[in-house]
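Researcher: Please translate sequence to structure tokens.
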Amino acid sequence: MVGAGTIADWHVRALKIAGLQVAAVGTRPGSQRLAKFAARHAIPAVFEDWRDMLAHPEWDGLVIAVSTEGTVDVLSAATPIGVPILVEKPTAWTSAVLQPLVESAAQQLIVGYNRRFYRPVQEARAEAQRRSPLLAQLTLPEAVKPQGEADPERRYLLPFLENSCHGFDLARFVLGPLHVERVDRRVDSDDRLVSLGAVLSSDRGDLVQLVANWDAPANFGLSLNGADWRFDLCPFELATIYRGMDVFDPTDEVPIRRYVPRVAGRIPVDEIDTKEKPGFVRQAEALKDMMAGKDPPEFAASLPDAVAALRLCEELLGPYVPTYPR
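Model: Translation complete:
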């Protein structure tokens, strides 16, 4: 394990449930969390510098869960070892920094877009593949808060790169590669980006309406719409399927016409995903299988997928892409 933060805690729990032994942990020099993390999880080998840990040849697999700005350095050093790797998303702040690793990372690797492992998300993909091109809506009310002080590097937009990339990867997973057709950006009086809307298309002809309204009182969601059918992932952990509509005429008690979609079913996450961080145990099981010589699951995210999600973020932000950190 490289990293000893909160997300690393969840990974260790999932790895143990999957039947793996966390044999060692390493962090950046000077980490204040390392000793307590190792003690909390009974990890026998502790390295104050992750580089020293990677120098040992006996590890069968690696999980990289460090800050975004530090991930590329760790991943660059880890890929020559040739063992299976699970690395946290978004893996880098920019697609340009991540792209060179696509060619060099020849061994098996999963990027931690854990929502791909949700049962509702996989059902959404299966339904989309069975249907003609769909009209979809992607809602990403990211917690982006422009501050009053000067921010020439636009760091306030980093949460969009770091977290909303999940939504773009999920939409790509369900519908296939996406292309930006149009973007409308809204800025405040200080030229700070406060929201954006866009229309995207898929290779198979789907249209995706994106609404990214910073810090709005809404949930993250993806809705797939057909002629008499709708598949809602809202939140991403729960699918609700609608078929048809009931129309109720006005009455004396309710003097308005009501249109009520018929709920045809709901698909929750698996039981283990109600007890652990959703998707993490199945990710850990995939890593275990890779360590046993199997290929990564075809639905798991790869480095090219991570690059594609970042490129969508960058294209949508346009001139407002943060200039720090590179």
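Researcher: Any highlights?
Model: The first helix runs from residue 6 to 17.
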